[in-house]
Amino acid sequence: FKEREEGEKEMSAWNQLGAVETIYEEECEFSSTSSSPSPSFSSSPPSLHSRVKAWSLRIGRETDILIRVQGICFRLHKDRVASQSSYLKRHLTETSHLTLSPPLNITPEAFAAVAEFCYNGKVQMTPGNVAAIRTAAELLGMTAEDGLSHVAETRFREVVGTNKECASTVLRSCLALLPEAETTASLVSRCIEALVYVDGVRSLNDVMEMQPRDFQTVAESMGRRWEDHDVLYKIVDMYLKEKKIEKVKEEERSGICNSIECSKLSSETLIECVQNPRMALRLVVRAVVVEHLNTRHSMALASAQRERRQRRRRSMTLGEFLHRDAALSERAKLRTTMDCTNGRIGRVEEEVRCMKRVLRECEEKEALRSESFHFVAVEKGGGVKKGERWSASFDGGMRRSSFSVDVPKMSATFGQRFMSGLKNAFRMPNSATT
Fold this sequence. Notes:
Blueprint: H1 2-16, E1 24-25, H2 48-59, E2 65-69, E3 72-76, H3 78-82, H4 86-91, E4 97-100, H5 108-120, H6 130-139, H7 148-160, H8 164-175, H9 180-185, H10 187-199, H11 212-225, H12 230-243, H13 250-257, H14 267-274, H15 281-314, H16 318-369, E5 374-375, E6 390-392, E7 398-400, H17 408-425, H18 430-433
Parallel strand pairs: 2-4
Antiparallel strand pairs: 1-3, 2-3, 5-6, 6-7
């Protein structure tokens, strides 16, 4: 316990100085003379040192392997890392010392996260380190169903699908991990796909910073993954335009352009590709050939369809002809009926509008007549004479009108006398009737 307290005091002193609590060391017994200084972590995961020490106390055995990553040494337990990584299990069978060097593109930060996962099954991942952890897990063979590779893959998809800023952060972190980040898990091409889906090719400025060899690797991967190569053509064209053709070797330009399959380009893109001076000559020739073949195929298809229609007409029986003519006649009748119905509906609507207009005018006239009225009164002394009209106003007074109107009663009396004369003229004598 006394040694433990001294160790905790020493670790506390290092924490106050801002040191990182991990078990890797700068000066291990087999390190090279040009060991690089310990890099600073972008995040602060739980102390690997405390977990390794707690595991040693739990099993009563000290660390038994030493793994060196870019000049930094990690003292770990063989059974813990071998149970999670097939690569470490295979290489630590006959040795307890191992150096992870290129072509394994694994950073000390990524390996610290790998070791953390080996001890507690958890690891803190951010948009800045998820690509490095995903690449390291794939390179170390941590591909079990519950292994770090699947955990990092799930986190990668969540981060990339969050928003454009997170996808751009992941893409920038992948540039230092090329080509392994693309060859192991297609991380770069998937980041590009997410950015293109959100904002098109305008948000791919980071892609222009790739070296031609790395960009060729990514372009070939995108060519294998994508069914439509129109977007890939735009990305390649933008890269060659930004990089300047003279800065890209002819063989590199040819390799980049070969990632585009002309058979997966639309007709418009094929025509643009043929006229684009930045494209490699081999791609232009293929585009011309494919466009010619597409034209011949379209012509042959149209001719075949026309011949099928003609054969179908020639092979039709009398019943089929009659059925077709009846269907065409019925369709024409329905169209005529529909046109007539539409015309009738239009006429009815016009009549309704006219009736409404007439009704409105009648209502206005009736309203004007109701404002005033007149009557004829006969008095014995000094009353109203025939042919004169008296009007009554709303104040009760009466005044004599200076103009004359016809009297309906006189017209009625004259008609009656006229009809009576006609009847008398054509009536038979009484003696004749008897």
